[in-house]
Design a protein that fits this description.
5 domains; Rossmann fold; eight-stranded parallel beta barrel; 1005 residues; Galactose-bd-like_sf; alpha/beta; signal; Secreted protein; six-stranded mixed β-sheet
């Protein structure tokens, strides 16, 4: 069958960078570069970790330069500060300080100098920079103790009293902080263990806050005399969480003397209130005071991309903010006070001794949902404030919105310029990415970003194909910008050994940079990724189906729609919270929802979904505007929060809709078949023997369409998962292959075209992805309408077509687009495997002084004769604990002695690449190859007689660390103290047979 072209590209020259500005919408006026040579604005970036401001600034500048030279578009500057040096992971990561953090802390003059160094180096190297708004994960900054903009919590107390005597005394806990609420209630029952679970009679809950005197005295006689287990009075006080984003140097172990802490700016960083604009203002004020002079501000406007905050990983006992009661009353229509007892412990920072619920049918869940919805709305104020501030600086704001918190993630994604998810927290789950991307696309956001590549227990072991597997799944979920995790500063650091400072104490992958043998070859996959991002950021995403998805808790991001029927049929889909329906693009025109954004063909509401009043009102509007709405499994009955009247109104409204012709109440099973029966077809109809994912972008300026196609081989051993099939595209444009590995754009020579669709036959290696573009204004080349076995590829123009035929003993026929047919004679010269290799292994080991990181790895060569390709640890037992580079060389004769008939040239096929591979034939270096199935046309390089093949491969560092594992440390923390066992022994080198595949050129027209 036809194999996709795998040809070449010239070396890339990066264009000058232009400021990103504040326009976060699709098709914004920025410098995108070209598909061949994307600009830094659309290239991937590295998260650049500097542990503190003591780092050598010359090394910092060199790191920035190296990031650009590798092919990235810039970096995300993060002051790591030993991950806050806190008790996370049970204190495993805590390390003694190796510099004076009073002097070198976040926001210090030394930190400002480092920031300016990074910005200046980025300007000199045409790169862009994201700046973390705080140290560690950016959730806080230095601030005065107990500043009103810091993260809040509730401190709760309770006391029992008898019904007959009532309560007459000082509230329990009085003086812990300002009183938020005093509540009384009767315990009606307990769970199996009455020590930990108690049920409160909802009718007995009373807010008695107004009865508390200024001295904390409460006199109260219970009106509810119903017999119960006990009566309780609860008291809740507003307190600061005192959650440290970075510990004070005065409070932690240090390997070097620490200067006295004399100001709050030297005293570590506190997490700020993420439910108010006041919390955002603490961050803003600190930046204005400590970091933003005219020079730095000018540099930010020139090369700044994002101000940025990481995922929400701080904790409290109970999420709270001073305005919560007021906003809850205003937005929910009742007081939260009576229900605070069932909310305590929502922050996860500590487990309450007793869990309380109510005796309502839902155990009070509706009130918890109202609380979470209110927190969602307050968090939007925080995000909006930081977005506005970033825009005032002339750049944009990015954040990992909501997830890990009991809030509605989908509702708040639109409130930042560049919403970011992550591969680790989303578990590489395409459905999770679709949840995140839906609201971003509806809001017209140009970027859906991802912190990519962090995997537990993979540090120095994650091979590049595994990294790309996660990126490809992200691309399939409409992620279009990646920040690679991560690039640690490459300089010397206290009590830190080769291979260098390692974040998370050797737990999470990966440590990119010159310490990696593969780093000199990173440009191969970074250019590939850049071109995928270029396409993913071009135009407007188009999606077939929207799912209604309302949840007020995203402490994890599970799959919402589990059946595979939609996916297998080629339907694309995303998720929207009904909160998103207030966005300007959320309207119906000509039966299409969000016509200027995703242009959804239908909206699906499942029976197990949760309704909202605003959402149902919008459903009614959309239904009367002609949008096909499918109620899968029946009409939903669950309502979000406590509002019985609104729930009754919503139910009645839905029942009234069912009489409309465009409203369909169907069974839950086989939604794809339901859509087909309603003449709602996918933009990409897929027919394949494995799962293929697609995404679609439409460029309104050029009228070009771009489709990303990914053959998912999850769970299949690397190198497996080969798949054949076809895709029918809802377009009549001329199809072109956009080869992200080479940068070349070539007309597809095999496809069928109807009045409405183009159908392309494809075969894809496991985990291979491709991009097909459709040009509306291009005269189609002569092409074949079918393909067959024994065809490598074909080339042509408007009048001619040449087929490149590999070994095939059968006669084949092609139907051409000009109405003619062509017969292909058998091609009888078989492929042959190269053997008798010379292998020189360049082993990377520590320098003579293992603490002298800047000396780099010691490199030692070992030579082996390898008749047949094997993993290094099978070539010689001496290579079991070796990492580095492998230099393979061999020769072959051309033409082959087994030639039967004419041959025109050959392809060299090295199979799947295990890390990186650079191939040279007869002294000519070949361009990067498709990593899942690397093949090149070498017909123009062949010479009669002896031909030479040289292949340079790289490895991860994992095997090479095994021998030294007990010696390795980072900031005084031994690797073996956190990860007791060294990395598992992995197979390195060229693992697949290298073949020479002869071909014959057949001109068929």
């Amino acid at each position: 069958m036809y194999l996709l072209p795998f040809f070449t590209a010239a070396a890339l020259l990066l264009p000058d960078v232009l400021a990103i500005g504040t326009n976060d919408q699709v098709e914004s006026d920025i410098d995108y570069g070209t598909f061949q040579n994307p600009s830094p604005n659309v290239r991937p970036r590295f998260r650049y970790w500097v542990n503190d401001a003591s780092m050598n600034l010359s090394v910092v500048a060199e790191d920035v330069k190296a990031i650009g030279k590798a092919g990235a578009g810039g970096l995300e500057l993060v002051g790591y500060y030993l991950y806050g040096d806190s008790s996370n992971f049970g204190g495993q990561l805590a390390s003694p300080l190796q510099s004076d953090w009073t002097v070198f802390g976040f926001g210090s003059p030394a930190w400002k100098n480092l920031v300016d160094t990074v910005l200046t180096a980025a300007k000199e190297n045409d790169l862009v920079v994201d700046l973390a708004i705080g140290p560690n994960q950016g959730a806080g900054v230095p601030a005065p103790y107990n500043d009103d903009g810091l993260l809040w919590d509730l401190s709760g107390f309770n006391s029992s009293f008898s019904t007959e005597q009532g309560f007459d005394g000082t509230l329990p806990g009085w003086g812990a902080g300002p009183l938020i609420a005093a509540v009384t209630g009767r315990v009606s029952s307990t769970g199996s263990s009455n020590e930990t679970y108690k049920v409160l009679a909802e009718s007995s809950l009373l807010d008695v806050t107004h009865l508390v005197s200024s001295s904390g005295h409460l006199q109260f006689q219970a009106n509810d005399t119903t017999k119960g287990l006990e009566h309780l009075v609860f008291a809740y006080y507003l307190v600061h969480s005192e959650y440290r984003e970075v510990q004070s140097p005065a409070d932690v172990e240090a390997a070097v003397p620490q200067s006295p802490v004399t100001t709050y700016s030297q005293n570590g960083s506190w997490a700020v209130d993420h439910f108010s604009s006041e919390g955002a203002q603490v961050t803003v004020n600190f930046w204005r005071q400590a970091l933003l002079d005219n020079e730095t501000g000018a540099l930010i406007r020139e090369v700044g991309n994002y101000m940025w905050e990481d995922s929400q990983e701080y904790s409290v006992s109970t999420w709270w903010t001073p305005r919560l009661q007021q906003v809850f009353q205003s937005n929910r229509g009742y007081s939260i006070n009576r229900f605070i007892p069932i909310l305590v412990g929502s922050g996860g920072g500590s487990t309450p001794n007793i869990t309380y619920v109510t005796d309502e049918a839902d155990a009070g869940t509706s009130h918890t949902v109202d609380y979470q919805q209110t927190l969602t709305e307050l968090n939007a104020e925080y995000l909006t404030s930081l977005t506005q501030w970033s825009n005032e600086l002339g750049i944009q704001f990015s954040a990992q919105v909501v997830y890990n918190l009991p809030l509605d993630m989908l509702a708040n994604v639109p409130y930042v310029n560049g919403p970011e998810c992550e591969t680790l927290g989303f578990s590489n789950n395409i459905d999770g990415y679709r949840q995140y991307a839906g609201p971003a696309h509806l809001a017209g956001k140009r970027i859906v970003s991802s912190e990519a590549g962090a995997e537990m227990s993979k540090v120095y072991q994650e091979p590049i194909p595994e990294l790309l597997w996660g990126l490809k799944r992200s691309l399939a979920g409409s992620v279009n910008q990646f920040v690679l995790h991560g690039y640690p500063n490459s300089g010397n650091y206290g009590n830190t050994t080769w291979p260098g400072f390692t974040t998370f104490a050797y737990i999470f992958s990966d440590m990119h940079g010159p310490r990696q043998p593969a780093f000199a070859f990173y440009g191969d996959f970074l250019d590939w990724l850049s071109r995928n991002q270029f396409v993913g950021q071009t135009g407007v995403p188009k999606v077939d189906v929207a799912f209604w998805s309302k949840s007020t808790s995203y402490e994890s991001v599970p799959t919402v729609y589990s059946p595979v029927d939609l996916q297998n049929a080629g339907y694309t889909y995303e998720y929207l919270s009904p909160d998103n329906f207030v966005l300007p693009g959320a309207y119906v025109s000509n039966g299409t929802f969000a016509p200027n954004q995703q242009a959804f063909k239908a909206l699906v509401v499942r029976a197990n979904e949760t309704l909202t009043a605003i959402g149902v009102a919008k459903l009614v509007e959309y239904a009367h505007a002609g949008l096909p709405i499918i109620f899968s499994g029946g009409l939903p009955s669950n309502f979000s929060g406590y509002n019985p009247e609104a729930a009754r109104t919503a139910t009645k409204a839905l029942n009234n809709l069912t009489s409309l012709n465009n409203i369909h109440v169907v069974s839950y099973n086989n939604l794809a078949e339901t859509l087909r029966s309603l003449d709602i077809s996918p933009r990409t109809s897929v027919s394949a023997n494995r799962t293929w994912y697609t995404t679609w972008r439409h460029d309104t300026a050029t009228l070009k369409d771009y489709v990303y196609i990914y053959n998912d081989a999850t769970g299949v051993p690397y190198g497996g998962g080969f798949s054949v099939g076809s895709v029918s595209f809802e377009t009549t444009g001329t199809p072109f292959l956009y080869d992200a590995w080479s940068g070349e754009v070539t007309a597809l020579p095999f496809y069928q075209q109807s009045e409405t669709h183009v159908t392309v036959p494809l075969q894809l290696a496991g985990n291979q992805s491709i991009i097909i573009g459709f040009h509306k204004d291009t005269q189609p080349s002569l092409h074949a309408q079918n393909t067959t076995d024994g065809i490598l590829w074909a080339t042509g123009n408007t009048t001619s077509l040449t087929v490149y035929r590999s070994f095939d003993q059968q006669t084949r026929s092609l139907q051409l687009s000009n109405g003619k047919s062509a017969t292909l004679a058998p091609m009888l010269t078989p492929a042959f495997t190269l053997s008798n290799w010379t292998l020189i292994v360049e082993s990377w080991t520590p320098p003579s002084n293992i603490y002298d990181i800047e000396a780099g790895s010691t490199r030692t060569n070992h030579t082996f004769e390898v008749p047949t390709l094997l993993p290094w640890n099978q070539v010689s037992s001496s290579l079991a604990n070796v990492s580095g580079l492998g230099y393979y060389s061999t020769t072959f004769s051309w033409p082959p002695q087994t030639t039967n008939g004419a041959v025109s040239g050959a392809v060299i096929d090295i199979g799947p690449i295990t890390q990186t591979a650079r191939v040279t034939v007869n002294g000519q270096v070949l361009p990067p190859g498709e990593i899942t199935w690397a093949r090149w046309d070498i017909g123009h390089l062949l010479q009669r007689g002896r031909n030479t093949v040289d292949i340079v491969v790289s490895t991860p560092l994992g095997n090479g660390l095994r021998t030294y594992w007990d010696q390795l440390e980072t900031s005084g923390k031994l690797a073996s103290a956190v990860v007791p066992s060294p990395p598992d022994e992995a197979e390195y080198g060229l693992l697949a047979p290298v073949q020479i595949v002869a071909y014959r050129e057949d001109r068929v027209a």
